[in-house]
Amino acid sequence: xxxxxxxxxxxxxxxxxxxxxxxxxxxxxxxxxxxxxxxxxxxxxxxxxxxxxxxxxxxxxxxxxxxxxxxxxxxxxxxxxxxxxxxxxxxxxxxxxxxxxxxxxxxxxxxxxxxxxxxxxxxxxxxxxxxx
Length: 132
What we know:
Layout: H1 9-30, H2 32-39, H3 43-64, H4 71-93, H5 101-131
């Protein structure tokens, strides 16, 4: 049995998503001065994005701890993750901010991580439907 086929795969991915939201939120809020100086991303944007991640993490943790997992909740998480990735891309391409190379790397890295989580959640949801 592969890792993806394990019954708790989707729940585990959701919990990882929630934990990474808290960690990233903490980095972007508590470390806003440092991250801003390193990346040239405005401190206000970092703070707003970081603070938004705490309630998002709570929602994801709520979805992850339901028994059984609620498909609608999982879809909400996936759609939210896709929205975060699209928002990250828009911030870079609209010219609304002018990060330096480290800033672009920061935005791209977190967007790729969120996209991977969304894909893993979608995979887990498909596997759960197939197993049911």
